[in-house]
Amino acid sequence: MNYFKDLAERAVASFAGGALSVTGLDAVNVLNLDWKAALGVGGGAALVSLLKALAARRVGDPESASLAK
Asked: Is position 67 within any domain?
């Protein structure tokens, strides 16, 4: 169960980081934000994180989503 908790935490963090990278940190106006782009980049980042975690399970510790042993 630790693996899936770790995987979810990494995917959510990657999604948030990707979505925030689209907004720009100078001034965020949620009414004018390009939500489609933010969700697309966030989703892409979460997908890459998920794929990395799946690969890590085969390479590293099977109870962790990390590539580090």
From this structure: no
